[in-house]
């Protein structure tokens, strides 16, 4: 980014609207001197503009390549592509600006060999139109297509219907979702290192870690159901839950992910913690994964006064409250807790047996009304 700071306060004030107004007043019989005084414009400038029939494009040898309309249309095109998940990179924006100038036969200073605008021009263009260079999230085609007005409206229609029918209040409305916990976190906290050093390392347990699934559930009033852990193994071991949050549930599966049988077990855990009944029902909002749709789960929910409301397919990244407001801070706190454990236990690796204890540190920090 250039460190240049503009020293002059001069700016272009003679616009097409002013030129049009000057011509109209002169046609009505006003003198050029009186028009210049009324508009606070030097008379020599006014005469010069009337003789040339144009307005100034610049204050010196530099000038705007695009008209205001073309400049704004290019910015609007950038926003349009971003909304549709096809945002432009810095290089693509530079090439598009070059193509636009060439197509309109404009006099420009862009690089004709590389056929692109300069880095400085792109940065100034972005600054003018409040555009910033952001790191995008990977969004699958299914998610991009699934999150649409029809699907979202259908969900809220269903939500309104069940709230009206059962009279749910905040303490009875729960969000439930799963997230993966890695024994080797994907992101590490930043550390201080010598300036100019090319590679900065940080000790982790292994090159690739194991994934343990954590099942979290919270109500709209801020109360939490004790989490459940799904370990990728055949048999349960009490040691896996050492240091876990109180009343946490241990589950195991071959893959380490939720399945229909485990979801039934989790529902029983929910009934034990939240104590819903037909006289005091509860609403659980969850994604439409096949493991949540078994007949056993639906029957158990009906028997205990639980209403299951599914989010539309491929929309949980925007509509699931746990995804949008809870798992992000939780993952960050978990990565920090993993790093602290690694520093305190030099030479030891994080395995499945440490995940629950480390998760508890992060969970207790994030799962609070204050946070």
Q: What this model shows, in words?
A:
Helices cover 43% and strands 12% of the residues. With 371 residues, it is an alpha/beta fold. The protein folds into 3 domains: 11-63; 68-128, no CATH class; 141-190 and 204-366, 2-Layer Sandwich (Nucleotidyltransferase, domain 5). A 6-stranded mixed beta sheet has the order 4-3-2-1-5-6. Strand 5 (282-286), helix 10 and strand 6 form a beta-alpha-beta unit. Helix 5 (90-103) crosses helix 6, helix 9 (260-274) packs parallel to helix 10 and helix 12 crosses helix 13 (352-366). The model has no long low-confidence stretch (mean pLDDT 87).
Q: Terminal Cα separation, in Å?
A: 36 Å
> Mean pLDDT, rounded to whole units?
87
Alpha-beta classification: alpha/beta
Strand content: 5-15%
Strand order in space, largest sheet: 4-3-2-1-5-6
Topology as a string of helices (H) and strands (E): HHHHHHHHEEEEHEHEHHH
**Poorly predicted regions:** none
When the domains are counted, the total is 3
Percent range of helical residues: 40-55%
According to CATH, the fold-level topology of the largest domain is Nucleotidyltransferase, domain 5
- Rough outline: elongated
Query: Which value, in Å, is the CA radius of gyration?
Result: 31 Å
Question: What is the tally of helical segments?
Answer: 13
By CATH, the architecture of the largest domain is named 2-Layer Sandwich
Classified by CATH, the class of the largest domain is Alpha Beta
Q: Major sheet: size, sense and barrel closure?
A: 6 strands, mixed
User: Mind telling me the CATH superfamily name of the largest domain?
Assistant: Ribonuclease H-like superfamily/Ribonuclease H
């Amino acid at each position: 980014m250039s460190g240049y700071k503009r020293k002059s306060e001069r700016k272009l004030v003679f616009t097409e609207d002013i030129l049009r107004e000057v011509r109209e007043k002169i046609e009505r019989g006003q003198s050029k001197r009186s028009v210049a005084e009324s508009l606070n414009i030097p008379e020599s400038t006014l005469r010069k503009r009337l003789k040339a029939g144009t307005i100034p494009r610049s204050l010196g040898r530099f000038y705007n390549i695009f008209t205001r309309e073309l400049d704004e249309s290019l910015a609007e095109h950038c926003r349009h592509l971003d909304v549709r998940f096809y945002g432009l990179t810095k290089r693509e924006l530079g090439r598009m600006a070059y193509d636009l100038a060439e197509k309109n036969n404009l006099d420009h200073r862009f690089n004709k060999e590389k056929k692109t605008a300069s880095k400085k021009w792109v940065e100034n263009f972005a600054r003018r139109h409040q555009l910033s260079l952001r790191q995008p999230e990977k969004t699958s085609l299914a998610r991009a297509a699934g999150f649409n007005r029809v699907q979202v409206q259908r969900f809220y229609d269903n939500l309104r219907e069940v709230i009206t029918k059962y009279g749910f209040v905040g303490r009875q409305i729960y969000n439930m979702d799963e997230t993966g916990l890695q024994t080797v976190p994907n992101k590490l906290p930043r550390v201080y290192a010598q300036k100019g050093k090319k590679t900065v390392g940080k000790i982790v347990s292994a090159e690739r870690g194991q994934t343990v699934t954590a099942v979290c559930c919270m109500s709209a009033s801020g109360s939490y159901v004790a989490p459940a852990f799904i370990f990728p193994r055949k048999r349960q071991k009490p040691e896996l839950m050492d240091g876990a949050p109180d009343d946490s549930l241990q589950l195991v599966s071959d893959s380490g992910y939720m399945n229909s049988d485990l979801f039934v077990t989790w529902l029983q855990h929910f009934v034990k913690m939240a104590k819903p009944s037909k006289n005091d029902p509860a609403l659980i909002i969850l994604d439409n994964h096949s493991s949540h749709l078994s007949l056993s789960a639906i029957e158990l929910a009906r028997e205990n006064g639980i209403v299951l409301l599914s989010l539309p397919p491929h929309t949980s990244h925007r509509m699931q409250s746990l995804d949008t407001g809870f798992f992000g801070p939780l993952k960050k706190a978990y990565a920090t807790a993993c790093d602290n454990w690694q520093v305190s236990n030099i030479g030891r690796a994080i395995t499945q047996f440490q995940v629950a204890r480390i998760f508890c540190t992060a969970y207790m920090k994030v799962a609070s009304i204050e946070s």
